[in-house]
Predict the 3D structure of the following.
Amino acid sequence: MLRRYAKGALLVGGAIGIAGLAALMVSGQAPQRHGAAQEAGPAEAGARLYAEHCAACHGARLEGQPRWQHRREDGRLPAPPHDASGHTWHHPDAQLVEIIKHGPARLIPGYESDMPGFAGLLTEEEIRAVLAFIKASWPPEIQRRQAARGGAPERR
């Protein structure tokens, strides 16, 4: 009798778990993950980190701010897009990591930017995860061109 009850409980529990996963898949939401790149693939972890630290300025869809190539009244440029329409892919990974760590002003003397450095907030592994997320949005040809400029090939 106890065995039958245990089997029934196991079946019900499994059905609830499967229904919960199906609901998450249908809703398009994945379970919340913590620990960034350690628990998820780099691009998946990067998507979460990008949403948290980058999307407010660079856009939820990597689209950047309007008129990103035109200086504002304060002389600063709006945040550029990170999709294929921008220039992120023109830079090697090492330079992108440094820009994210320290902000562009540290790498370009005299350049003023609203972008802070993230060295105290993101590890290098997390920065590389953000880059993996950004690169995953690029078409294969742009990925190849960026790799030829010193971008590390996407690890899967």
